[in-house]
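Internal tracking record. Fields below are filled automatically when a chain is submitted to the structure queue. Please do not edit lines marked as system-generated. If the sequence contains nonstandard residues, flag them in the REMARKS field before resubmitting.
Queue: standard
Priority: normal
Entity type: single polypeptide chain
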Amino acid sequence: MKYMMFVCSDTEPDTDQRNLPDIDAWVAENDGRGRRLDGSAFAPESSATTVRVREGELILTDGPFAETKEVIVGFDLLECADLDEAIEVARTHPMARLGRLELRPLAVDGQ
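SYSTEM-GENERATED OUTPUT FOLLOWS
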């Protein structure tokens, strides 16, 4: 099953920075095991453009539209047997301690 894992900042990261996992090691391990299909960090949120259409009119806004202190800073596309495996993969990601990770299964046949 495929899961999109959104990598997000958090206003309350773990204060215990000892033994923080290395992101390069995490990527290498999960790429090697075939669990990480793709992923990337995003450019700073200040480079974002929000696109909306209202009443047929195109509305562009510089920067992210979400009115929150937390922002999506990257993503990983995972291939896991089930949600339990996806949670285990997310648990070992450095941002599980520094930020937050949202796992969302990809829709199958539009569902």
